[in-house]
Amino acid sequence: MNVGFCYIPNFVPAVNGDARTWYGQLMEQWRLADRLGYDRIMIAEHRYPAYAFPSTPVVAQAIASATERIRIGTAVALIGQRHPILSAEHWAAVDLLSGGRLDFGIGRGIWAYDLNVMEIPHDTSRARFEEAWSVIRRLWTEESVSHDGPTWRFQNHMLFPKPLQQPHPPVFVGCNATPESYEWAGRNGFHILTSPFLLKSTDLQRALLDRYRAALAAAGHDPARFEVLGNYHLFIGEDERAAADAKRYIAGYLAFLSAASRPHPLSGQDYAVYRETDAMNWELEDMLANRAITGTPARCREQIEMLTDACGLTGWIFHVNYGGVPHERILHQIELFAATVLPALATAPGVTATAAGKG
Question: What is the DSSP string of 213-269?
Answer without folding.
Answer: HHHHHHTT--GGGS-EEEEEEEEE-SSTHHHHHHHHHHHHHHHHHHHHHTTS---SG
